[in-house]
Every structure is written in structure tokens, then in C-alpha cells.
Amino acid sequence: MSNKLAPSIRLSFPLMALVFQVAIIGLFAGFVDYKAITEGKFSITYPVFQDVNAVVVIGFGFLLTFLKRYAHSGLAFNLFLAALAVQWATFLEGALLDTLQEGIQISLKSIIRAELNAVSAVISIGAVVGVMSPIQLLLMVALELTCFVVDQWFLKSWLSIDPDTSVMHLHLFGAFFGLTASRVLYRSGLCNGHEKEGSLPISELFSMIGTIFLWMFWPSFNSALLDTRLQRSRAVFNTYYALAACSVSVFAVSTLVHNKGKIDMANIRNATLSGGVAIGLSAPLIDSPYIAMIVGFTAGVISTLGVVYLKRCLETRMKLHDTCGVLYTHGLPGIIGGIVYVVLIFLTSPVPNKSLNYEGSPINKAVAIIVTLSASLVTGLIAGQCVNWHLQRERI
């Protein structure tokens, strides 16, 4: 993305955006209505909605500003794509996941779930920001959201996985969908870096604002869809201590592996949130803070080492370019979180019910994670091919 778009994009992008928005308005007019709510429930849920909204708009928006060339457009396009994604996700979720016969009914919880789905698309964009044109980003968001909601529908229909649980696979799906699409769009000139991919002190500062916002609101993010007070309180406490332990480990390891013994802001930006990602699925299950701290600490160490040692290897050997480091912020921590979740389910589920046809089975949960990961890789590859048109566009 740049300040001056190619002539073809100046026409096709606004046209496609307007057509997409008008189509969504038509779908809402025909199928969507508001659900009756109670005052007490709304008052409880609205603060959570505010926190999740801050994560999507402010947190992830400022996180993209570290690129010196794309800071302004990254922040603005995050808002544009998030606004479009929430609307599309609301319709898709209502059409595929809701069981009501009288049409799609919107509640505050359904909007929160739509925003969580939108986060998966924003994560995917992080892998390809600067490589795609605006129209390609729009297409990719629409495809990614559709594939992710279909994945949740499949898990609900065939494995009896609650959508409130499967939506928390967003880190895995978003990261590997974006990485696979990035692999399709790879150019040989990216293996040695590019001057436009660099950052400035001021752009790093603004990016850290995004990291801090995400750090502050991540406990609300992980507990947004939980029903009981016990689950919500556990999720908030465990997420907070996982983030705290993760942050300490990231600062320590970053200094340790730096050739001058300095703190690398790229490591801090990418890795300090990995603890919150890793604890996401299992946060309501953990009843001791030290377990959450171990998970966060481990995620922080692995994420930091991945940024330092794995990034260049993937670019040169596997031709996998990851602009924002979504593999280390979301992908690897998501895998760690999936493993921890399955182990906890195995330890806490009744022995006779460790089978695939039981909803609470660890095998059931493990298969769901494998299905989501596989779906993200396959659909990301297909989406990458779909958006890889020969358009005039600006690339890094």
C-alpha cells in the first residue's frame, strides 16, 4: 500500500468495497434482526465488548505501525478491514452457527464473537501487510473469514465443539492462513530484507502503544465469551499471570541473545503477547496461577528464540516471508496453547469418556485443533492463489 494507488486500483478498490458493503446491507435487511435483551445482562457484557473493541481497533491497529513506510496506511486499513470483517462475520456466524429458525438475531455476545472472528483476519493480514494491494487485502479478509467460520461450523457439526470454544482457535487459523498465503505471494527479493520493511524509533514507539493496549486488555479478550463467574475470573487471573511471566522471560532472553546485550524492540513487540495467546484456550480450566505462569514463561522463551533464530531461516530456506511476525506472536504460541489445552482436558476428563464421540474428550479436542490447523494451511494456499492476480500494485 502506498499513498498513490495505481489507476486500476483507484477504480476497482472503492467499487469493490462499496459493492461488498451494499451486499452486506442487503443481507442484513433480509435476514438479520436484534435479539431481545435484559438490562442487567447488557450492563455486564458491554464493558467486555468495549475491551474487545479496543483490542481490535487500537491494539492491532497500532501494532502494524512499526513499518516506517506503511505506518499510517497500516493503522487506517486495520480499521477499514476490521469494520468490514465484523459485519461479514456477524452474518456468516448467524447463518452457519445459530440454531434459531426465525432468522439471524444479533446480541452483544454475537457481536463480540464476530469481533473475535475479525481478529483472525487481522492476524492473517499481519503476515502479508505491504505485500498486497488494498483490493487483495479486502478479498483475503472475506475469504479468510468465510473459511474460519466454515471451520467452526464443521467442528460444531461433526465434533460437537462449542463455537465459543472453536472461535478461540483464531490465533492458529489466522496465523497459518496468512503464512500460507504469504508463501504463495513470495518474491525472491524479500529473502534479504527490504529498506521499506525497516522501522524508525518513532514507528517502533507507536507499535509499542499497540502492544501495551493488547497487553492491558488481553485478560478481557480471553474471557469475553465465558458464561460463569468462576470461568471468567479464572481466565482473567490466568491470562494476567501468563502475560506477566511471559514478559519477564522475553526481556531476559532478548537481552541474552542480543550480540550487544541490548533489548531488541522487535522481540518485545512480537513476543510479550505470546503468553496471553498460549493460555487462551486453557485459561478457564487452570486452577493454580503457577501453571499459567509456566505456560506464559515457556511461550515467551520459544517466541523470542523464534524471532531471533527462525525468522531468517524461514525466509531463506522455505521462502516464507512474515512481515509482522505472526508466527511468533500467534502461530507458535497457538500450538503451545493447543497442546496445553489437550493435556489439561486429558487430566481432568473422566476416564471412561476419553473417546472421539464424547464432547469433552481430549481426543475430540486434539482432532479439532488438527482440523483447524490443516484447514488454515489448505484454505490459505487456495486464498493466496485467488488473490495473486496480475494487478498493478505497490509491494515492499
Task: Tell me about this structure.
With 396 residues, the protein is mainly α. It has a single domain (44-350, 360-394), classed as Ammonium transporter fold (Orthogonal Bundle). It contains 14 helices and 2 strands. The protein has helices spanning 7-31, 39-63, 71-96, 108-128, 134-159, 163-166, 170-184, 201-223, 229-257, 265-271, 274-278, 289-317, 326-348, 362-387, and strands spanning 32-34, 104-106. A two-stranded parallel sheet has the order 1-2. The longest helix has 29 residues, at 229-257.
Please name the CATH topology: Ammonium transporter fold
Order of helices and strands: HEHHEHHHHHHHHHHH
Q: Biggest sheet, in brief?
A: 2 strands, parallel
* Overall residue-averaged pLDDT value: 89
Portion in strands: under 5%
**C-alpha Rg (nearest Å):** 20 Å
Query: CATH first level: which class?
Result: Mainly Alpha
Order the strands across the largest sheet as they lie in space: 1-2
| Spatial separation of the terminal alpha carbons | 9 Å
* Percent helix: over 70%
Estimate the global geometry from the Cα principal axes.
Answer: globular
Low-confidence segments: 390-396
Number of spatially distinct domains: 1
Q: Write out the CATH superfamily name.
A: Ammonium transporter AmtB like domains
Structural class: mainly alpha
Question: Brief description of this entry?
Answer:
The chain is an all-alpha fold and 396 residues long.
List the helices and strands and how they pair.
Blueprint: H1 7-31, E1 32-34, H2 39-63, H3 71-96, E2 104-106, H4 108-128, H5 134-159, H6 163-166, H7 170-184, H8 201-223, H9 229-257, H10 265-271, H11 274-278, H12 289-317, H13 326-348, H14 362-387
Parallel strand pairs: 1-2
Helix pairs in contact: 1-3, 2-3, 2-4, 2-8, 3-4, 3-5, 4-5, 4-7, 5-14, 7-13, 7-14, 8-9, 8-10, 9-12, 10-12, 12-13, 13-14
